[in-house]
C-alpha cells in the first residue's frame, strides 16, 4: 500500500491510468561553500526532507502543475523549446526550467519530444533556508517529466543537465545541489568534484550527528539573494582572469589554477584588493567585448555591477577547497574535533572574506558552539538561511535545548526551525499502475 502522502497526491492528480511518483531530497552542505562554480569540491549530505511529485502523462504538450502548499498557486503552460518564465520568484519556474532543458537535451540525443503531463507537488524541504528546496523541486519535476517520456538517463548526466537548467531562474548556480539530490547515498556524505562531475560516498562516523538550525531570515535564490550570489560568481571569474594573465596560464575557473597554495601565499602581490569595472581590460588583458561575453551577459542581475572584490574572494575559495580535502580526511579517520574546527574556520571565512553571513547566522553559530557543537557554519549560499552544526550523539539534546532557549525563545519559530538531519538517499522514480 502507498504511504498516505503519496496516495493523497495521486488522488488529486487529474486524468486516469498509470502514474508515477518522483522524489528528490534537499541537502545540507557540510563544508565547501561557494566552491562548486569555481570547479572546486564540496562535501554535502542529502537530507530526509524531500519534494514528492505525482505525475501522469497527457497526449498533448500541456502541463498542468499544482501544489499542496497554499502559497503555490496552480500553473499551466506548454512544453516548448523556449517556455516563457513566470514572474521572478514564482515556484513554477523550477518546473519550467527542467522542462525546457529536457526538450533541448532529448532533441540533441534524438530521443523525441517531451510530452505534457499533470504534476502534483508536495514539498517538505524547509523553504528559503539554504537547504535546496528549489533544486529538489526542479530535480523531482525533471525526473517525473523524463519518466513520462519513457526515457532514463545516467544520474550524473542528469545532474549536470539540471544544474545548467537552473540558470533559467537567473541565478548563476554551481552544480552541488542537483548532484547531491541525484547521487547521494544513505548514511554517507558525498565528496563531489566538478567539470567533469564526479562523486564518491564518504563514511560518516556513527557518533556524528548534524543539526540544522534556521536563522528564519529568508534566503531566496531567485529573489533578493540572487544579485549577491551572482556578484560572487562574477568576482571569482574576474579574479581568475586576472590571475591567469599574471601567471601566464590558461584557467577557466579558480580550480584550474596550478599551485593554489603558492597563489594563496602570494595573493597580495598577484591580485588587487578590488577592481572597478573600467579597470578590468587592463587587469585581465581581455577586450571589453570579451569581458562582456564572459561575465556580463544581458539580464545578469549583479548586486554591485561597478565594483568587484577580488582578493578576499579568492582567499575564501582556495582556502575552502583545502578545508574540504582536510575535512574528508578527518571524517575518514573519525576525527570529529578536527572536522568541527574546519567547519568553524569555514564559517569565519564565509563571513569575513566572502561576505555571505548575516548577524543572525553568526549568532546561531555562536549559540551552537556554546551548546556543545564541535563546529558550526552557515550552509548553502548564505545571505540568511540556516547553519549546520556537528555534535556528538550524546550531546544532541543539550544542543537543541540551547538553541531553543538562546535563539528561538523570543520568537514563534516553527518546529522545523531546527532539525536533526539524517543523511538520506538519492532521488528516485516509481511507477504506479492503476
Ligand atoms: C547555492 C548554489 C550552489 C552553491 C551554494 C554555495 O546553494 O545553488 O550551487 O554554489 O549556493 O556553496
Overview in brief:
By secondary structure, the chain is α+β, with helices and mostly antiparallel strands. Helix content is 39%, strand content 21%.
Q: Any overview of this molecule?
A:
The protein has three domains: 4-203 and 428-432, Ribosomal Protein S5, domain 2 (2-Layer Sandwich); 210-219 and 323-421, Alpha-Beta Plaits (2-Layer Sandwich), CATH 3.30.70.890; 226-314, de novo design (two linked rop proteins) (Up-down Bundle), CATH 1.20.1440.340. It has helices spanning 4-11, 92-109, 133-148, 155-165, 176-183, 225-247, 260-265, 267-270, 280-284, 288-295, 311-332, 336-352, 359-370, 396-408, and strands at 19-31, 43-57, 62-67, 75-78, 117-123, 188-193, 198-203, 208-214, 274-276, 307-309, 375-379, 386-392, 418-421, 428-432. It contains 14 helices and 14 strands. A six-stranded mixed β-sheet has the order 4-3-5-2-1-14, sandwiched between helices. The protein is globular, with a radius of gyration of 22 Å. The chain has 434 residues and is α+β, with helices and mostly antiparallel strands. Helix 2 (92-109) packs across helix 3. The two termini are 13 Å apart. Bound molecules: alpha-D-galactopyranose. The site of alpha-D-galactopyranose (GLA) has 11 residues, from helix 5.
Amino acid at each position: 500500500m502507498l504511504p498516505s502522502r503519496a496516495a493523497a497526491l495521486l488522488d488529486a492528480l487529474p486524468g486516469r491510468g498509470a502514474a508515477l511518483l518522483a522524489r528528490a531530497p534537499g541537502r545540507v552542505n557540510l563544508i565547501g561553500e561557494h566552491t562548486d562554480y569555481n570547479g572546486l569540491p564540496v562535501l554535502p549530505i542529502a537530507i530526509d526532507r524531500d519534494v514528492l511529485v505525482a505525475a501522469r502523462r497527457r497526449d498533448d504538450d500541456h502541463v498542468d502543475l499544482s501544489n499542496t502548499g497554499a502559497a503555490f498557486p496552480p500553473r499551466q503552460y506548454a512544453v516548448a523549446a523556449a517556455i516563457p518564465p513566470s514572474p521572478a520568484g514564482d515556484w513554477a519556474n523550477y518546473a519550467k526550467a527542467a522542462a525546457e532543458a529536457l526538450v533541448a537535451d532529448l532533441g540533441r540525443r534524438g530521443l523525441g519530444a517531451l510530452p505534457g503531463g499533470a504534476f502534483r507537488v508536495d514539498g517538505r524541504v524547509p523553504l528559503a533556508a539554504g537547504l535546496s528546496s528549489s533544486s529538489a523541486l526542479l530535480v523531482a519535476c525533471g525526473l517525473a517529466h523524463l519518466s513520462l517520456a519513457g526515457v532514463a538517463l545516467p544520474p550524473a548526466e542528469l545532474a549536470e543537465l539540471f544544474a545548467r537548467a537552473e540558470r533559467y531562474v537567473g541565478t548563476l548556480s554551481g552544480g552541488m545541489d542537483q548532484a547531491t539530490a541525484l547521487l547521494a547515498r544513505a548514511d554517507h556524505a558525498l565528496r563531489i568534484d566538478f567539470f567533469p562531475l564526479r562523486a564518491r560516498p564518504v563514511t560518516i562516523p556513527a557518533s556524528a550527528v548534524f543539526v540544522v538550525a534556521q536563522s528564519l531570515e529568508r534566503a531566496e535564490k531567485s529573489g533578493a539573494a540572487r544579485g549577491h550570489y551572482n556578484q560572487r560568481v562574477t568576482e571569482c571569474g574576474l579574479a581568475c582572469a586576472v590571475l591567469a594573465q599574471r601567471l601566464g596560464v590558461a584557467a577557466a575557473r579558480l580550480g584550474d589554477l596550478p599551485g593554489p597554495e603558492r597563489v594563496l601565499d602570494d595573493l597580495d602581490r598577484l591580485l588587487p584588493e578590488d577592481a572597478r569595472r573600467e579597470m578590468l581590460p587592463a587587469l585581465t588583458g581581455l577586450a571589453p567585448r570579451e569581458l562582456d561575453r564572459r561575465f556580463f551577459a544581458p539580464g545578469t542581475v549583479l548586486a554591485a555591477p561597478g565594483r568587484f572584490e577580488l582578493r578576499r574572494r579568492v582567499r575564501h575559495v582556495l582556502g575552502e577547497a583545502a578545508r574540504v580535502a582536510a575535512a574528508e580526511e578527518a571524517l575518514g579517520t573519525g576525527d570529529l574535533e578536527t572536522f568541527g574546527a574546519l567547519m568553524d574556520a569555514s564559517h569565519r571565512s564565509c563571513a569575513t572574506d566572502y561576505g555571505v553571513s548575516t548577524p543572525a547566522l553568526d549568532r546561531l553559530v555562536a549559540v551552537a558552539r556554546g551548546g556543545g557543537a564541535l563546529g558550526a557554519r552557515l550552509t548553502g549560499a548564505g545571505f540568511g538561511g540556516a547553519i549546520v552544526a556537528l555534535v556528538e550523539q550524546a550531546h544532541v539534546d543539550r544542543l537543541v535545548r540551547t538553541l531553543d532557549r538562546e535563539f528561538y525563545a523570543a520568537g514563534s519559530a516553527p518546529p522545523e526551525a531546527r532539525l536533526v538531519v539524517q543523511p538520506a538517499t538519492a532521488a528516485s522514480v516509481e511507477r504506479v499502475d492503476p
